[in-house]
Sequence to fold (121 residues):
Amino acid sequence: MSGLTGEGKEMVPELRKDLWEMRDAIDRYKDLTDRGGIQTKADSQGYPPDLETLVKGVDVQGKKTRFLRRIPIDPMTGTTEWGLRSMQDDPDSDSWGGQSVFDVCTKSQGTALDGTKYKDW
Fold:
């Protein structure tokens, strides 16, 4: 089993925080859509089209509503490019179909101390 360096261990809490923040933003967008506050494409199932939409915001009753201040930098890869999944994607797929953003994950291929892949968190 591969372990983490001291630096890697410090990144784990940040990865969890970033994933939680983005998933919370996706959930808030979906909730507002379900309540009729945002009009979306039928095949999106109410999820945002991309992460940038969560940062730029959407017009809700004449007011701009933002869900994220910025797209976080993935502490494992050092980029703002995250793995994305839509409802239409196969749960085991490593590629995004592009319909909407249902979930996010790191693009890191690393393994945590417990043996799980970071991309599966």
In short: Residues 1-7 have pLDDT under 50 and may be disordered. Residues 111 and 118 are 6 Å apart (CA to CA). Strands lie at 58-60, 63-65, 83-85, 103-105. Helices lie at 6-34, 51-56.
